[in-house]
């Protein structure tokens, strides 16, 4: 459900990175969240974007996110950096958490660039617990790495910084991972190259938890797609989804708007309850168990294995 918030503060954090702080428009408390959660902000230009929360989860008066100005911005980060102003009221959905911190005895947190945002909230949580943990924060250069001084305060000697330009290339992940205690849970967020490098070095992939900014591989029409019908349970409206057209676009053509953000199956903004039919999942969020249960699906990328899907939509 969307809620209205005020943008109360905007500040420069590092090269290309701005921090935004929000308070509830009605002056009340904001919903609870856990490290790893993100919110979906609908900008005044109509674009919806997901940003990880990186403030203190115990502070229900304020939410903080940090936004990297993407070189190939599609209108989200460029708007935030160039046009969004303190005092604006924005609609926000969430928080939603596709990257929760599970109980464990030992953790390694790995952040690359703006991937520090969910990892910072995790570091703050772990610093308050009696567990073994350490973190690796990598970036191309120190100037573009947000929250450096805060992280030194949170993690102290547990923080290992790696700046590619100072250290002559990317970090030696094999050595870092080999130095972890058995069973260490690894949480990683950052650019695809970092995630792929960590994935390739993990001896036990079950210990790795990652959050992507982009789908690992673009979701493309396979050529063997067939048409199916979607029924909106609330109104009974029936919409045919043609091959090569997404469910969200088919619904939009019929006047049913579903909030989307990434449109790549990685953020969860368009997650919708399935009341009937068998989804064909193409997202990067649901676990194998959730896929088999077939109770929810991402309408931006997923399709249908049966002739009809009944969805929990008005
Ligand atoms: S819009 Fe992000 S998962 Fe569908």
UniProtKB/TrEMBL annotation:
Its cofactor is FAD; FMN. The keyword Ribosomal protein does not apply. One of its GO terms (molecular function) is 2 iron, 2 sulfur cluster binding. Pfam families: DmmA-like_N (PF22290), Fer2 (PF00111). The keyword Flavoprotein applies. It comes from the Bacteria. Residues 226-314 form the 2Fe-2S ferredoxin-type domain. Keywords: 2Fe-2S, Flavoprotein, FMN, Iron, Iron-sulfur, Metal-binding, Oxidoreductase. Residues 1-102 form the FAD-binding FR-type domain. PROSITE patterns: 2FE2S_FER_1 (PS00197), 2FE2S_FER_2 (PS51085), FAD_FR (PS51384). This is Ferredoxin-NADP reductase.
């Amino acid at each position: 459900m969307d809620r209205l918030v005020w943008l109360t503060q905007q500040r420069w954090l590092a090269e290309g990175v701005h921090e935004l702080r929000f308070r509830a428009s009605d002056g009340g408390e904001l919903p609870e969240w856990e490290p790893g959660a993100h919110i979906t902000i609908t900008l005044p230009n109509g674009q919806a974007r997901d940003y990880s929360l990186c403030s203190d989860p115990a502070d229900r008066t304020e939410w903080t996110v940090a936004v990297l100005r993407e070189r190939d911005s599609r209108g989200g980060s460029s708007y935030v950096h160039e046009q969004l102003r303190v005092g604006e009221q924005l609609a926000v959905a969430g928080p939603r958490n596709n990257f929760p911190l599970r109980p464990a005895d030992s953790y390694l947190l790995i952040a690359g660039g703006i991937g520090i945002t969910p990892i910072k909230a995790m570091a703050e949580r772990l610093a308050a617990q009696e567990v073994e943990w350490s973190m690796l924060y990598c970036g191309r250069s120190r100037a573009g790495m947000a929250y450096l001084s805060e992280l030194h305060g949170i993690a102290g000697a547990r923080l290992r910084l790696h700046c590619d330009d100072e250290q002559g290339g990317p970090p030696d992940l094999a050595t870092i991972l080999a130095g972890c205690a058995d069973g260490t849970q690894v949480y990683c967020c950052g650019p695809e190259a970092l995630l792929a490098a960590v994935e390739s070095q993990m001896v036990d992939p079950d210990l790795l938890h990652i959050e992507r900014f982009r789908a690992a591989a673009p979701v493309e029409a396979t050529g063997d797609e067939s048409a199916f019908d979607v029924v909106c349970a609330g109104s009974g409206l029936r919409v045919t989804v043609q091959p090569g057209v997404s469910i969200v676009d088919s619904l939009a053509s019929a006047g049913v708007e579903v909030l989307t953000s990434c449109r790549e199956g990685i953020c969860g903004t368009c997650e919708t309850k399935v009341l009937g039919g068998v989804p064909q999942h193409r997202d990067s969020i649901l676990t194998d168990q959730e896929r088999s249960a077939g109770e929810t699906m991402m309408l931006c990328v997923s399709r249908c294995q049966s002739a009809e899907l009944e969805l929990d939509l008005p």
